[in-house]
Design brief:
heterodimer; A: Rieske Iron-sulfur Protein; 4-stranded antiparallel β-sheet; 11 strands; B: mainly alpha; Cytochrome Bc1 Complex, Chain C; two-stranded antiparallel sheet; 7% strand; binds protoporphyrin IX containing FE; binds FE2/S2 (inorganic) cluster; oxidoreductase (chain A); electron transport (chain A); Rieske_2Fe-2S (chain A); Rieske_Fe-S_prot (chain A); disulfide bond (chain A)
Chain lengths: 341, 553
């Protein structure tokens, strides 16, 4: 250590013409002066370490004593006791060590000098020499043919490593344009998850002011039901025809004031789950895009741009609500190829 | 084989000899045992980052023994009654198993989550301390870059982990990520299909994120931490401006024993904090949310804190920012979140080089700046923090609106306003405060510290008694680096290049408003003046004019 100790010269200390007065004198602590206080701290540190041991015991005892799986409350109790034990075990060691260091260990500040980060002149000269020698011995500068072909080979060699990632997934194809909805597919109630036997809906089940969460009855037809649900989820609302502001082209997309819109937000895809009865607004809970159901779910506020796509519906001969076709517009977040179809 | 050293006799001596003859342990102890670390609370923030990372690695490793990163569907038949019979993925089911059935499983899970939150917080605050004190300046620019990498990786680690349990919230978070990816022009749809192995959500994403979360990202973090700490050793730590501290020395505690005891103790304190939080405060109770289902969502749910600002940007950006060029969509309303996040990282990465260029400062700096002594840097930093907080609070706009009984839309308008003007106001205010503090420092150095003791002069005037500073306390008030405005310089041909013109403009912006540090002459003049006419108390509070009566100042 003494070899690193450094006497500071005054020109290193001067800043703005002021002279650095150097380290202030060391002030002794109570523990440095009074042996009885020193002994008190000694006992305190040991006390913290004992607390830690008690914490460890508490942890082990609760681990053995409580079987958490039996009830929710036992699980909570187990967590609290184990956590308490762990906290005490760790806290005791931590506080003990710090109290020890602060009060009983030497607190004289020590000075060490900084050294140049760069190598000495000699280091640099030798380094240059080594590089030169390597260049010489390999002949890399004299043999451009070897050098250039090597560079080209190295540049190409990573390509296979990129190409193998092609296998990560299928190409999008027209998947983002199609959902399970199709002519005659019946509307079923979304009871959460993927129901075994979806419950079908009749027009009279939908009352004014209510909103029904809907999935296609054939939800099991796709390869993976959740993927299909993630595109096909629909909201069904019945609105007083006077309040409904329908585009003449789309007048037959609704049935008796019942309209169906994609539930997947056109912003970044959250389910648009909140319906305000008075205003007929749909609100996306994720970033608060607001869609006006009376006006073809156009965006009236928030970060989304495109209206929620409408699903044309009608009833079949048995009185069940059915889709007339798939969504005419793509559902969900905007994607690059969205206008290519 | 060592022949010159005497044979060790004690057990410890034998063990030490064994280690030394196999790995040169004595050289290591000699090199590092008495390394000096300056001690200051703000230097512990890097340690908190390190310790919380270690704790997250330990708890996370335990979780891997019980977690199934798979999306196969099954029906729950565990002890948690509300979910019995519900169809869910193996990932979600195993998370429930860890929480309800594994002894200590919930504790470890909660410690992992609390530790991760603390980790990202500590890294962020550590970064702010490095920024505001100018510790990124030469020779530490590269270590700052390593830090920027660590910051980005800490976000990635957090997000990939948040997504793993496959509960309703994590799945919803992934869906948002999918929406953001799809907004990327040209390749977005492809990236989405490759990431998810097909359409969202597919059956691959959890196991893929798992590989990233438990291997790739931690490995990268560990590698960068190693480089980071080697740099800290190579550069030696910076120190605060204080009497005795210079650009050529380090003053502090030796590693053995004091720093090691404090640091080691501190590790246990951080560990205890995380254990205590996990014992008493519930975090991410996935059983309340249910398995992922693309259809339901509950309002008012919040992402982990470090994702908040991205979520906030998505809320603040208006829909008209999405536009179409010949039918090809440019969803700036979404991309702006990506652009800001990447932009912040890039801006951080270039800052040390930018500042050195503007100030024409190529010197090494081992003594830190007090933030007030770099008013423009500090003001830019605070402006950034305010900007970040606006975006972050934006993610809770709905909750804030409910709390203040405001309309949600008004709330968003306020955030849009603050997004632009918050940082500007913060910049102006901070800069004024810094300059004010610098003037105050100057006053104190010149005239001493206010004692609060009022004296009445013979002719009736009241003065406050000032206590002169001892040279040790005065030092940090007068000895600081204060770059000046350097206008654009002409090159050899007498021309001013465009880059140099810009440098001149930035230099003006940075250094035009400046409170010059006191020169030695000014200080001496003031002291002579004080001694002649001023009134002072020495440290015992006695009158110092020698005549026991106050003099007009
Ligand atoms: C995994 C995350 C990180 C860990 C574990 C970590 C750890 C540390 C530790 C233990 C120190 C020495 C003590 C201290 O000054 O606090 C340090 C110093 C430093 N860190 Fe970090 N850090 C992390 C992230 C960052 C970030 C995000 C930045 C900036 C972008 C950064 C920049 C620096 C710099 C420049 C130093 C040298 C400071 C000085 O000598 O004053 N670090 N880091
Ligand atoms: S996902 Fe609906 S507003 Fe963002």
């Amino acid at each position: 250590m003494s070899s690193k100790e450094h006497t500071v010269t005054s020109d290193e200390l001067d800043v703005n013409g002021h002279t650095n007065p150097g380290l202030p004198e060391h002030k002794p602590r109570l523990t440095d002066t009074y042996p009885e206080i020193e002994r008190r701290f000694e006992r305190q540190v040991a006390g913290w370490f004992v607390l830690s041991m008690l914490g460890t015991v508490l942890f082990i005892v609760s681990f053995i004593a409580i079987e958490p799986g039996e009830s929710y409350d036992l699980m909570r109790l187990s967590n609290t006791l184990l956590g308490l034990g762990a906290t005490l075990a760790l806290l005791g060691i931590g506080v003990g060590a710090i109290v020890w260091a602060k009060n009983l260990m030497n607190d004289h500040e020590v000075t060490e000098s900084r050294h140049d980060i760069h190598g000495s002149e000699e280091d640099r000269a030798i380094a240059v020499e080594i590089i030169k020698q390597a260049k010489e011995e390999s002949g890399i500068a004299r043999r451009p043919l070897i050098r250039n072909t090597l560079i080209a080979a190295l540049a190409l060699a990573p390509l296979p490593a990129v190409i193998v990632f092609r296998e990560l997934g299928p190409l999008p194809g027209d998947k983002l344009f199609n959902t399970l909805w199709d002519q005659g597919v019946r509307l079923a109630i979304d009871t959460g998850g993927i129901p075994e036997n979806p419950r079908l809906l009749r027009a009279e089940d939908v009352t004014i002011g209510s909103v029904v969460h809907v999935i296609p009855e054939n939800i099991h037809d796709g390869d993976h039901a959740l993927d299909e649900k993630a595109k096909a989820a629909v909201l069904l609302m019945k609105i007083d025809p006077d309040e409904l502001n329908e585009d003449p082209e789309r007048a037959d997309w609704s049935y008796d004031g019942i309209v169906a819109y994609s539930k997947i937000c056109t912003h970044v895809g959250c389910p648009v789950a909140l319906y305000e009865h008075q205003t007929h607004h749909l609100l996306c809970p994720c970033h608060q895009s607001t869609f006006d159901v009376t006006d073809h779910c156009k965006v009236i506020f928030g970060p989304a741009k495109r209206p929620l796509p409408q699903l044309p519906i009608t009833v079949d001969s048995e009185g069940y609500l059915v889709a007339q076709s798939d969504f005419p517009d793509p559902v969900g977040p905007t994607f690059w190829e969205i206008n290519t179809r | 084989m060592s022949t010159t050293t005497p044979e060790p006799t004690t057990a410890v001596g034998k063990a030490a000899d064994w280690a030394d003859t196999r790995m040169g342990a004595s050289k290591l102890v000699r090199e590092f045992g008495r390394k000096i670390f300056p001690s200051h609370w703000s230097f512990m923030l890097g340690e908190v980052s390190l310790y919380s990372f270690i704790i997250v690695v330990l708890t996370g490793t335990y979780l891997t023994f019980f977690f199934y990163p798979a999306m196969g569907e099954l029906h729950y038949d565990g002890p948690y009654v509300p979910l019995q019979g519900v169809e869910m993925s193996q990932a979600y089911q195993s998370t429930l198993y860890i929480s309800f059935e594994l002894r200590g499983g919930l504790l470890i899970r909660q410690m992992h989550h609390w530790g991760a939150l603390l980790f990202v917080a500590a890294v962020s605050i550590h970064m702010l301390r490095v920024f505001f004190t100018g510790a990124f300046r030469r020779p530490r620019e590269l270590n700052w870059l390593v830090g920027v990498g660590l910051l980005a990786l800490s976000w990635a680690a957090g997000f990939t982990g948040y997504s793993l349990p496959d509960d309703l919230l994590s799945g919803n978070g992934l869906r948002i990520i999918d929406g953001i990816i799809k907004a990327i022009p040209l390749v977005g749809t492809y990236i989405s299909f490759f990431l998810f192995g097909g359409e969202f959500p597919g059956i691959d994403i959890i196991s893929r994120l798992y590989t990233l979360h438990i291997m790739i990202i931690p490995a990268a973090i560990i590698a960068l931490i190693a480089i980071h700490l080697i740099f800290v050793v190579v550069h030696k730590h910076t120190q605060w401006p204080q009497a005795g501290n210079t650009e050529r020395n380090v003053v502090g505690e030796p590693v053995l024993p004091t720093f090691a005891a404090k640091g080691g103790g501190f590790f246990f304190l951080v560990f205890a904090l995380i254990a205590g939080l996990s014992a008493f405060f519930q975090i991410n109770p996935v059983w309340n949310y249910g398995p992922y289902d693309p259809s339901p969502v509950s309002a008012g749910t919040q992402p982990d804190w470090y994702i908040g600002w991205a979520d906030g940007i998505l809320r603040i950006a208006p829909g008209w920012m999405e536009f179409y060029i010949f039918g090809w969509p440019i969803s700036m309303n979404i991309l702006v979140a990506v652009i800001i996040m990447v932009g912040v990282l890039v801006g951080m990465a270039v800052w040390p080089f930018f500042e050195a260029w503007v100030a024409k400062d190529n010197r090494e700096h081992h003594v830190l700046d007090r933030p007030r002594n770099a008013p423009t840097r500090t003001a830019v930093g605070v402006a950034f923090v305010v900007w970040y907080l606006v975006m972050w609070a934006g993610a809770s706009g709905d909750l804030i609106a409910v709390f203040f009984h405001m309309s949600l839309n008004d709330m968003i308008y306020i955030f849009r306003f603050l997004f632009f003007f918050g940082p500007i106001i913060a910049y102006i205010v901070t800069k004024r405060i810094c300059l004010g503090l610098q003037r105050k420092d100057r006053e104190v150095a010149l005239h001493g510290r206010e004692t609060g003791r009022i004296l009445r002069l013979p002719h009736g005037e009241f003065i406050e008694v000032h206590e002169p500073l001892d040279p040790h306390s005065a030092w940090r008030l007068v000895a600081f680096d204060s770059p000046e405005y350097v206008p654009a310089q002409a090159d050899e041909n007498g021309k001013i290049s465009t880059a140099e013109k810009w440098r001149g403009r930035f230099s003006k912006f940075f250094f035009e408003d400046r409170v010059a540090p006191l020169s030695k002459a000014e200080l001496e003049a003031a002291h002579a003046h004080n001694e002649g006419h001023g009134h002072h108390l020495d440290s015992e509070g006695n009158d110092q004019d020698g005549q026991g009566r106050p003099l007009p100042h």
